[in-house]
């Protein structure tokens, strides 16, 4: 997570509805840097501008896009103490999601190993090695 400076990757997680499905903004618009603190978003189709602007505004990034014709300007807010605290909350939430995801993958792998052991498809030594490999 970068602060204070604009980068096009900031909008990678923002999704917009396009023909009934949710797609990343980068698939329906050209995302460029206008200057060090401003991102420019130009939708490929003019009718998508309002949807893209709303998706950026509704994201939890704290951005306030402004449409100028068919170009959407996304200025980066200054890093205030309040914004910094909000960014910390966002990063902590993403970190927790990552930890939960890792726990789920490990649990599923261990369950699979136990099932193989129960069905006598692997030996106890192989099961122990597999469980150790999952933890590493």
From TrEMBL:
Record key words, sorted: Coiled coil, Cytoplasm, Protein biosynthesis
InterPro entries: Ribosome_recyc_fac, Ribosome_recyc_fac_dom, RRF_sf
Keyword Coiled coil: yes
Database matches in Pfam families: RRF (PF01765)
Domain Ribosome recycling factor: 1-136
Cellular compartment(s): Cytoplasm
Coiled-coil annotated spans: 106-133
GO annotation terms (biological process): cytoplasmic translational termination
Gene Ontology MF term list: ribosomal large subunit binding
Keyword Repeat: no
A GO CC term attached to the entry: cytosol
Record function comment: Responsible for the release of ribosomes from messenger RNA at the termination of protein biosynthesis. May increase the efficiency of translation by recycling ribosomes from one round of translation to another.
Family: Belongs to the RRF family.
Protein name: Ribosome recycling factor
